[in-house]
Structures are given as C-alpha cells and as structure tokens.
Amino acid sequence: MATMTMIQALRSAMDVMLARDENVVVFGEDVGYFGGVFRCTEGLQAKYGKHRVFDAPIAEGGIVGTAVGMAAYGLKPVVEIQFADYFYPASDQIVSEAARLRYRSAGDFTAPMVIRMPCGGGIYGGQTHSQSPEALFTHVCGLRTLMPSNPYDAKGLLIAAVECGDPVIFLEPKRIYNGPFDGHHDQPVVPWSAHPKSEVPEGHYTVPLEAAVVVRPGDDLTVLTYGTMVYVAEAAARETGIDAEVIDLRSLWPLDLPTMVASVKKTGRCVVLHEATRTSGFGAELTALVQEHCFFHLEAPIERVTGWDTPYPHALEWAYFPGPQRVGEAYRKVMGS
Amino acid sequence: MPAATMPLQLHVPEPTGRPGQATDFSFLRLSAAGEVTRPAIDIKPAHTGTMAWKLIRVLDAEGHAVGPWAPQVDVADLRRGLIAMLRTRAFDARMLIAQRQKKISFYMQALGEEAIAVAHAQALQPGDMNFPTYRQQGLLLCRDDIDVVELMCQLLSNGRDPLRGRQLPVMYSYKRAGFFSISGNLATQFVQAVGWAMASAIKGDTKIASGWIGDGSTAEADFHNALTFAHVYRAPVILNVVNNQWAISTFQAIAGGEGTTFAARGVGAGIASLRVDGNDFLAVLSASRWAAERARRNLGPTLIEWVTYRAGAHSTSDDPSRYRPADDWAHFPLGDPVARLKQHLIGLGAWSDDEHTHTQKALEEEMAAALKEASKHGSLQDGHIPPLATMFEDVFEVMPPHLHEQMRRAAEHKVA
C-alpha cells in the first residue's frame, strides 16, 4: 500500500475511474496539460488523452452546463471548479438543472456527475479563495454533498461519487491537501505520511456514501464536524483533556443520522464545528437534528463553533478560523467546567 | 457644446410600435428571396459575417422557390411539413380553449413560428438531440410516434402524465424522440446542447445536437457560454436563436438586438452564422440541412437566427395588446408560415384549398377526440393527479432515509 497525500489520492481516484470507465471525462480550468492549480489532475491528460481530460474556458456556468449535457448523453463528467468560491456562476446549472433533471423528467434524463471544488481557508486565500459553501448545497434537494478529511476517504469517496447515479458536490478542504492541520498555524506543517489515513490502496475501492465515522471515541461529549475541523476537534480534546467523541460526517447530505444520534445519546452533550460562516450554516441543521432526535438525552445546550459571519479575511485569517482554543472553550462550556 | 460639458444620456430602446401606433418593421433588415448566396459547406466562420446581416429567403411573394438556398425536397415531405404545421396549430388552438375552460392550468402556443421546428426536424436524423424551449412543440407534433393523448395528459397533470405531475404544462421530455426535458429557467438548455454534442464527439459518435433559445434569453450568460464552448471544441451542434421579437412584453432591442443581429453574435464568437426567414419553410429546411451537414462533417457549430414573430400571447397568462399593436402580426412582413407553404404547394399542384380545409377540420376533430380521451384519465382540477409518493421519488436515484421519513409523514397528513 502506498502513502499518499490528499492530492495524490484524488488523482489516483480519477486515474482509476478513467481507466475503468470509458465514459468518465475530466475537465475544468487548468486541469489538462498543466494538471490543475493544486496538481490534482497532473499527468492524467498525458495518460488518457485530450478527449478525456481537457482544459475548459473560465466559465463555471459553461463547465457545469456542458457537463449536464454530457451526462444526459451518457458520459460521467468529473469537473473541477478551481476554487469553491468560484462556483456561483454555475449555480443555476447545479441547482435548477443537474440536481433536478431526474425529477423533472421523471427519470427520462439524468445528470450524474461529480463537481470537485477546493474549499476552506487556512492558506491566506482571502475572501475569494477560502469559502466553505457546503450549506448552499445541502439546502438543494437532489444533490449529494461530500467533504473528505483524509487521503483514504478522499479516494474512496471520490470513486463512490463517480459511480453514483446522482450529481455529487465534492468539497476538498485545501488546507489539508498536503497534511492534516489542527489549527495551530504557528507550528510546523505535518505531512500526510505520518498519518495512518495516508495509507491508500493503489487500485479501486470505495468508501460508503452515507456513512459518518467516529474518528476519536470518547465519553464526555459528541463533536459533529467534517473536513479540516476534524483535526481541530481532536487537538482541542488533547489540549483540554475532555474525552470528546469526534464524528467525521464525510457525507453532509444525505446524512448518517443514526451514527450521530447514537453518539449524542451516549454522551448527552454535543458540539457542532465548521469553518463556514455561522448563520444558516450547516451546523444549524445539525443542531436542529440533534435537538429533534436527542432532546431528552441532552445534559446541556448544544454549542456551535464556526467561522464568524464575515467574509473570510486575509490578514485576520487566524482570528476568523475556529481554532482549537475556541473549540476547547466550547467543550468546557458544554461540560459545565 | 463641448463634449466635456454635455449632460450624459441613458439610452433605453423602444419598439417602433405600441398600442395605437402601428409598428415600423424597417428595423428587420430584409433581403429579397433568392438574394443571399449559399456559401461552401466548409466556409470559414469569419467569412459568414455578411450572412449574419442579411436574411436567407427562398419563397418569393408568389410562393415560388428561388435562389441558391432553394432545397431539393420531395413534394411528399413538403406536404408532410404543411400538415405538421397545421397539426401543431390545431393542437395549440384546442389547448388554448381547454385553458380558458379551466381544464388545464397554463398553456403556451407556437402560433406563427410553426415552420421553424417542423422544417428543422426534417433536417435532423434519428438519434440527434434537440434541447428545446417551450415553443418547439412542433418537434413533437410533426412525429407519428408521439401520442397526442399522452401530451395532453402532461398538460392535464393527470395520472397518465409521463412526468408525474411535476412540471408545468408544456414542459415535455421525450428522450426517445430526441427532445430534451424542458426547463422553465431560460437559456440553460443552450449550453447543455453544446455539452451533449461534445459528448457525441468525445465518443466518436455520429449524432448531433440542436440547441434552442429565444431572442430574449440570448442575454443570459448561458448563451455566451454556449457560443464559447461550441467554438472552442468545434462542437457538432446547431445553435438556433428564434427571434420572435418579443420576450413577454420586452422587445428584442432590450435583449441587445438594436442596431445589430443575433446572428452577428455568432460570428463574433467565431461560429459560422446565418440569418434566416423563419416563416419560410423551405429556407428553414435548407439552412437547417446546411448546418446539420457542417456539424456531421466535423466543421463545427452553426448559429442560425430565425427571424419570425410571436403571433400569440407569450402564454395564457399574458395579454400582448397591452404593449404592442393588437393587429401587429397581420402587418409583419414575413407573413404566416402556413399560408406561405400552402401557396407554394398549390403552385406546384400538390395541394388545394379544399384539401387544406378538409385537413384542418380533420385535425380539429383529432384534437377534440384526443382531449376527450385524455380527460378520461382526470386532471389537476378534478384531483386525478399522480399519487403522493411521486413527490418524493426521483429526487435521488435511490430514495434516502430522510425522504422515506418525510413521505411517511406527508401520507399521515394527506387530506383524502
């Protein structure tokens, strides 16, 4: 088994699927000859040819719009939106077209595709290279929204997404492309090779699409989170000594409700973490679901730790980022300590 | 006055006619029938520049087919075309009445534009895919493998609606007939047609796509995306812009048609572009064949602006006499496509007034009988609609747990 970064794992997933399924095509801005600004598609054009892996004009609406037409024909497009911050021009094609084609045509036409996009901050990207727009997708019926947090899941989920019959939004936390990040931005970068989840099979495998995973078992409280914040949640547990049970949701929608509910019923306490802005964020949905399903098991109000309701700042990035200190405070608050 | 001190003025285009004021149609830039040359099939897109400012016409005022665009066509196909246009018109007329009788909730007719869809369909081959707007019902009504009863069941949103009551009336989907699912948010299908055509080229297939858009929605980004992608990848696609002059109450100048043409947009994007009399069945057939051949020979996309006139209201929710002269269509210089092909066929000795009247009557009877049959399956109005479960099905390929739960709860609260 090889050790891979997230980038290598994602590339390996596309490589595997381009080889297995001749209907898979990969395109997006800079993804062809150059291999993508984050190198996720490096070498794929040389290996599979310009008809399967190619550069697209800077027109996200055109990228997703043509992908809908290709999917209706029978291809499996895997498109890259260079940064999640750039998906907005494609909103109509994602929300009104890809997500609803099966429904509105009663299955006459479908639009299975994967829309990959790097998301999240922590790279001094400022307000146009740092956003986490997952709640804008989970709100749309007909879309699957995934966000892996490690190389093994990234590859297995991306392959599962390509093989799925639904349109899938595949959010890639760019801060952890090259190594896990626990929010301590002043400490040396940790490479993936030191993490067990960087052990990635070379060939085909899948990670189930609607399954959360308990990444840190614990008894004191339940943390519901995903992406980069998984590592912040673990760091806060180490640093506070609070025995948090950290759940990596992986699939934001549809959601693995039973895993969440079982954990909260066990611990009686819940903290919801995400990097995205707070108001109407996905954490609001998680909080509501926990309240609906676990109210009589709760020992304390549910806490949310999120980005602030501001654009993602450039200079004040670490004041915005919900780091281990803020997360630890939330743990103490729900523990009443 | 020195320019530096002149007050600046915002220009807001206006149509040349309004209620009580007859339209001056000189803005249309007409060419005489037979005047426009027919270029080689492999003409460089940039060299179609002059074509985009002229108007390809075949039928002259006497109904003769003249000039280089006059197509080689069997009289039987022309008769089929005329009958299909009459059939489309009869279907529309019957469904307009049904809407006024409140049997259906909404309708959109294609009156005055029938030649474009019907003649274009004759230039395509089985397996090709149209990405239509809501005014290309002629693509379906020209076929003998589409059951009008089923179309009417869609309009009635009843238990036999193949779209299970999920779409507004007229938003059909017929993959088997090369008719992509109609969306209600405009222009999205135009770039999808390009993607479908790219897929056909990626696979080394022989099928082409035909995308449709109105003059009004060429202002959408999807139109420009379609042109860019079609040009960049030399997609085997026909890009049809149906310029019927009106987008609900908005004249085409507000979409950017003033002082230019929609065909000229294509030339600017590096796409071979034609501007064609959309009410001239023979010109539509000929230009469509030219564009289809270019696509099939890997010569790339063709944009065609079809100049026509939306003779009816935008939809049954619209009253055009409030924003344009009520008798505008009667003065439209390109006339009625049905009358023009009828005149041509009579001139060929292949049609007669009697046959015309007889055909119209037979089609009216066909549509009345079909509506009667469709109505047996109920309607939105009488509550014979698809079952509750159809609301939750097809959101995902496999229904996830949260929708199972919501379906169960909705069933508990459903008023019987």
Polypeptide structure, described:
The complex is a heterodimer of chains A (337) and B (416). With 337 residues, chain A is of the alpha/beta class. Chain A folds into two domains: 2-200, Rossmann fold; 213-335, Rossmann fold, CATH 3.40.50.920. Chain A has twelve helices and 14 strands. Chain A has helices at 6-20, 44-48, 60-73, 91-98, 101-104, 134-138, 151-163, 229-240, 257-267, 282-294, 317-320, 324-335, and strands at 2-3, 24-28, 53-55, 76-80, 114-119, 144-146, 168-173, 199-200, 213-216, 221-225, 244-248, 251-253, 270-277, 303-307. In chain A, strand 13, helix 10 and strand 14 (303-307) form a beta-alpha-beta unit. In chain A, helix 1 (6-20) runs parallel beside helix 7, helix 3 runs parallel beside helix 4 and helix 9 packs across helix 10. The longest helix of chain A is centred in the N-terminal third of the chain and has 15 residues, at 6-20. By secondary structure, chain B is of the alpha/beta class. Chain B has two domains: 31-312 and 331-385, 3-Layer(aba) Sandwich (Rossmann fold); 387-416, no CATH class. Chain B has helices at 75-100, 114-123, 138-141, 148-156, 188-202, 221-232, 262-268, 281-296, 328-331, 337-347, 353-375, 389-392, 401-413; strands at 129-131, 209-214, 237-243, 246-247, 250-251, 272-277, 302-307. In chain B, the strands form two sheets. A five-stranded parallel β-sheet of chain B has the order 1-2-3-7-6, sandwiched between helices. The longest helix of chain B is centred in the first third of the chain and has 26 residues, at 75-100. Chain B is globular. Chain B starts with 74 loop residues before the first helix and ends with a helix. The model of chain B has no long low-confidence stretch (mean pLDDT 97). The chains are: A alpha/beta (337), B alpha/beta (416). Chain A binds chain B through residues 25, 51-52, 56-57, 59, 61-62, 65-70, 72-75, 89, 92-93, 96-97, 101-110, 112, 141-142, 144, 164-166, 210, 254-255, 257, and chain B through 129, 131, 162-164, 166-167, 171, 173-175, 180-181, 183, 185, 188, 191-200, 202-203, 209, 221-222, 224-226, 228-229, 232, 394-398, 400-402.
